[in-house]
Structure formats: structure tokens, C-alpha cells
Amino acid sequence: IAAAGLLEGYKVVQAGDMVQLHDAALTAGLSALAGFAAIAFMMRWLRGANFTIFVAYRLLLGAALLYLIYFRGT
Predict the structure, then answer these.
(1) What is the crossing angle of helices 2-15 and 18-48, to 10°?
(2) Closest-CA residue to 52 (of 62, 64, 60, 44)
(3) What phi, psi does 49 have (nearest 5°)?
(4) What are the C-alpha distances in Å from 23 to residues 7, 18, 26?
(5) How far apart are CA 33 and CA 12, in angstroms?
(6) Which among 21, 39, 59, 71 has the fewest CB atoms less than 10 Å away?
(7) pLDDT score for 28
(8) What is the pLDDT of residues 31-60, one digit of tens each?
């Protein structure tokens, strides 16, 4: 993702559109901050969380998919 962003940023710089480059840089920076905040929140939450809801979700989803595949067919 970083390489693609750098390549597109290079193209914008070559085109000379500094307003678009500023907007892209601002968007990338805010996206990075939101991503880091989400990861920090999830890591903090996972330290004390119970995984029962995720296990139940995966079992129910797996059962539903198996039902659809074997009994409904494709």
C-alpha cells in the first residue's frame, strides 16, 4: 500500500498538482492515525476480552455455510 501511495504521489508531483498532493497527503495521514487508533483500541480491548462471542459466531457461520453448500447445492 505504501509503495502504491508513493507511486501515485510521484505521479501527482510530476503533474504539478500541489493541491491534489496536499489533499492526498492529508487523507493518508488521517487514515494512518485512524488505523493506529483502531489497532490500539483492539489491542487494549483484547487484553481483557472474552472470546466466547467470536467462537459462537464462527461456529454458527460455519454451520450455516455447510448447510448452504451441502443441502442447497450450487
Answers:
(1) 160
(2) 60
(3) -85, 160
(4) 16, 9, 5
(5) 23
(6) 71
(7) 87
(8) 999 999 999 999 998 888 888 888 999 999
pLDDT of residue 74: 58
**The predicted structure's pLDDT at residue 58:** 95
E strand or H helix that includes residue 43: helix 18-48
Tell me how far apart the alpha carbons of residues 31 and 15 are, in angstroms, rounded to a whole number.
24
Q: Are 12 and 20 in contact (CB under 8 A)?
A: yes
Instruction: Using alpha carbons, list the distances in angstroms from residue 25 to 3, 14, 30.
Output: 14, 15, 9
- Which three three-digit cell numbers place residue 69? 453448500
What is the model's pLDDT at position 63? Answer: 96
